[in-house]
Amino acid sequence: MRLQSIHYVENRNNEQEWELEDLMLGSINLIVGKNSSGKSRTLNVISALANCLTRLRPLPGSSTFDFKFQHEGNSYEYFLDIVEQNVVSEKLQIDGEVFLNRGEGGVGVIKAEQMNNSEFRFQTPTNELAATFRRDSIQHSFLEPLHEWASTLRHYHFGSSLGKDSLTVLLPAGPRVDDRDENAVVGIFRDGKKEFPTEFVDTIISDMARIDYHLERVEISPPISIRFQGLPGEAVGLSVKEKDLPGLTDQYSMSQGMYRVLSLLIHVNYFQLKKTATCVLVDDIGEGLDFDRSCRLIELLREKAQKSNIQIILSSNDRFIMNQVPLEEWSVLKRRGNHVWVKNYTNSREKFEDFKFTGLSNFSFLEMDVINEPS
User: Which candidate, 73, 123, 145, 263, has a CA 20 to 30 Å from the CA of 309?
Assistant: First the structure.
């Protein structure tokens, strides 16, 4: 299932209102815009709906989601209106036909496939999504693609620590690591090495070399630069053996940029080998990297997305990143007050095409404010 478009409103009709108008998405997407235009917030909106559908987070305060998807040649539209953490409207349409429709008080109708798609009335608690509460792969299999998309979405904040400041105590009888947790990199590395003994680590080392980090080994070990006592087990973290250094470099001693790349590639290669993720969000991609490594990382991620058919949605205002990603994959956010609109090849093709003839860099497209008004 692939996300095609988003329209979102938060806190409608009050002073905290914020609206994102019709963001159209393709296979590979770079969301750009000046500071405070809503880049990170946009990725958070996508992640928020996935979290609601998987019950990872409580329902948000007051939000209206209108998301459109493509799945096996069919068009899905999922509409959800929440007021003060209670669902007041929820609808799922497939190719224009309503399969789920629920209103205030949790009362609605849903089609049952084993009953010749007859409609049945139901009532769901107002603090629950009917798409989740009524999930049934026999009677309502049309809900499954929505849940698969939500459960396989991954969201990474490249400008954050990504687990660098945390060690892990790996207990043999401990719970399985949640591979959706961007900070659980040590546990994910352990699982990846167990499930794919040679391919996983070899691919990470090869990918790191493409970013100009040349490693001989990646492993889990106690940190060298810091010690802990009184824990129920041994505290461990990531360590690497760099080709031009005689000893190990633990995660505390790694540069922030090097660690971020290593952490992201551990996640990406794990879900690629498991064939789990379908949509990957990376906020502030390239943050903390130099020009050359930023470009190399973007090239690698775009290549991985193309080979594995994963939808990738990146955000950045870094000129190096912008110059590396074709304008056809851009979505430019423009904000006026609490309203954000989007310009891209879908709705502003002429402006994008005309700019190509200037011979200027992609970054100049944003810097010169070529897209300056909503249509």
Answer: 263
